[in-house]
From TrEMBL:
Residues 71-297 form the ABC transmembrane type-1 domain. SUPFAM superfamilies: MalF N-terminal region-like, MetI-like. It comes from Cohnella thailandensis. CDD domains: TM_PBP2. It comes from the Bacteria. This is Sugar ABC transporter permease. Belongs to the binding-protein-dependent transport system permease family. The chain crosses the membrane at residues 12-40, 74-97, 109-130, 150-170, 213-233, 281-301. InterPro entries: ABC_transporter_permease, MetI-like, MetI-like_sf. GO terms for cellular component: plasma membrane. Keywords: Cell membrane, Membrane, Transmembrane, Transmembrane helix, Transport. It is a multi-pass membrane protein. The keyword Transport applies. It is found in: Cell membrane.
Amino acid sequence: MKTTGINRTNKWPYLFIAPYFLFYAVFSLFPILFTLYLSFTDWDLFGNNNFVGFYNYVQLFAHDKFFWKSLGNVLLFIACYLPALVLFGMLIASLIESRMIRRKTFFRLSFFSAYMTTPVAIGIIFALLFDWQGGFINNLFVELGWIHEKVNWLGSAAWARWIVILMIFWKNLGYFIMFYTAGMASIDTSIYEAAQIDGASARSVFFRITIPLLKPINLFLVVTSIIGGLQLVEEPMLLYSGWASGTSMTGGPDGSVFTPIWYMFDASFSGSSFKYGKGAAIAYSTFLFIALFSLIGIKWLNRDGDSK
């Protein structure tokens, strides 16, 4: 009888958490598994649903130059803005946490406000800045005499990549600063005081104390930035939505800002043929690269610990 009473008592927690698992199974787990199944088919909007095995993956990896170009684009973006975010994030955070700055909360919120900006607003802001005819950058450079003719920033493949890199850097700088300021504020001040007593310079303190103690934060920021970078889509897509660049260009000029998720969207929902199977294969292939490069980032940041 006691065992029955205990079982009746213990069943209530499971009943309370059951709705969460039910919603997760219906709205998360099932779409994930169904998408995996779709990646092995040639399913489209018109009813074709033939099982083709690894055909979609073979086409992507062996014959699809657009997939590799989109992957190369995002890796180039990450290689450019991630080191800059780490460097400038640490430097600005150390400046905010120094004794020279009194209103620390004001500066933290000022930098973090950019991260809270929606991708739609970011696309509009940078489109207005780099518009060919009436953009602020062109008008400013002409007034300063730096250029004599307005530059079609969004129409150039090289400039388009740098604009997207600048967009992501501007948006995420405050995010990095917030983590670094929180990490620096949590470091015991007695460590810095001991270093000063021993005669350590500010440079030595920064490189030998601050940076090593921020290693867990660097690990988190690098890995999440790699994941977010490989999933990049909103900012470049909105920048080339049509009204800003003068024409709707999928992937920007010469595909210079094409991303894997943009390619997935274009293959699945754009054009005359809706290739859901191909789009699903692109999604899972991107997931594999996210896992691969995240693992590389973790191994690289933990290389000192592994050597010990």
